[in-house]
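Q: what sequence does this backbone want?
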């Protein structure tokens, strides 16, 4: 499904990725973790050629992206969705129009767009928020809109760059549940970059550990499951003190 073969990437004099080879099978939820500067996000962006490798080959969905011209690459990217840490929503567009924008860019038939947008927003639990603007939404709702936008073109691969790092524990659990549902229901291959170990452990089946632009190891794990957190203030006190509030100032 995703094959990287000896890819390298340098920014000026900084070698961000050093001859990385990695295979991610179809239908897997794969994690990439490591310290800041390890090359996690750069590696993810190489998977859809948002960053072009200096050397090496990238193959996704049976297509060698590094061999495609610009038009063919744009077509290939329709099957690769991406979710960003800071949502990347257009502030002056409604929820509906943010999701519809990806359909418009992909040439989706105009008469079918509204029903497809509604379908995607229904899946992430936001069908009733179509007319709102991003500023009227919580962080979790913004990320759900971003997920709906990424789903609109029926991707086979979903690349997630720190999708929960701006969110509280309760909202993080909700977003991870949505991603797990996408994988289970649609068979979408998901790659998640995160510096949060608990996020990776909760949902990923294999995890690549990076250091200094290289793969240190790739390990197979049994996902622990998504912890059902709470957004009550009492929950945070319980987690901090371990006794439901005794010991607070």
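A:
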């Amino acid at each position: 499904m995703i094959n990287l073969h000896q890819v390298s990437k340098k920014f000026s004099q900084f070698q961000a990725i050093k001859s990385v080879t990695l295979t991610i099978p179809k239908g897997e939820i794969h994690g990439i973790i490591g310290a800041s500067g390890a090359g996690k996000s750069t590696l993810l962006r190489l998977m859809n050629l948002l960053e072009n490798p200096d050397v090496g080959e990238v193959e996704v969905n049976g297509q060698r992206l590094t061999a495609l011209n610009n038009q063919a690459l744009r077509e290939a990217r329709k099957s690769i969705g991406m979710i960003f840490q800071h949502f990347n929503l257009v502030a002056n567009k409604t929820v509906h129009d943010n999701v519809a924008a990806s359909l418009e860019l992909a040439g989706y038939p105009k008469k079918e767009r509204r029903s497809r947008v509604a379908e995607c927003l229904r899946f992430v639990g936001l069908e009733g928020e179509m007319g709102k603007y991003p500023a009227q939404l919580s962080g979790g709702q913004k990320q759900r809109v971003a997920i709906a936008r990424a789903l609109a073109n029926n991707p086979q691969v979903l690349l997630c760059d720190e999708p929960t790092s701006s969110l509280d524990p309760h909202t993080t659990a909700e977003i991870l549940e949505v991603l797990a549902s996408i994988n289970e229901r649609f068979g979408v291959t998901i790659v998640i970059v995160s510096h949060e170990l608990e996020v990776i452990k909760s949902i990923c089946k294999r995890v690549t550990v990076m250091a200094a632009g290289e793969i240190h190891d790739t390990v197979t794990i049994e996902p622990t499951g998504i912890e059902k957190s709470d957004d009550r203030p009492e929950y945070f006190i319980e987690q901090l003190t371990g006794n439901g509030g005794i010991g607070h100032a």
